Amino acid sequence: MRWNITLDLLQTKFKWNCLTEFIRNKIIALVHLKCTMHFSWVKGHVGIEGNELLDSLAKEAAVEDGPVVYNKMPTEVIIMQEKENGLCMWQWQWTNMEKGAVNQAFFPSVRNRLRQKIPVFPEFTTMVIGHGKLRPYLHRCGLIDR
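and the corresponding structure tokens:
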């Protein structure tokens, strides 16, 4: 019997699921039986019989309205959804706050601000928020009246 197995799925501990555990147990059982196994990379969608069979079974299972065999959500999806939820909440708070009108004028969107690579240094912060020693400096230079 020839098995096509994705090695990175077997080696990683972050993508642990029932299928991975099942395959690991089969491999361990075969090792105990002193079976020789060879693992190699198989290019997908090029007509390899076993791989094409697995692809067709996976497609069939994906569109079938049968019982859910695996209903866990990958960690990456949860992290992405929580980041999105956090950004939405942050944006709502940012939009609805009463203070910080100058900051909001510079950065109306939290998401866009996070995408920008702006080096934050004391002078920049002083300029944007209008606090610190900026007013006396601008007055001394004759740029503003007191």
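(Above: one complete record from the training split.) The radius of gyration is 29 Å.
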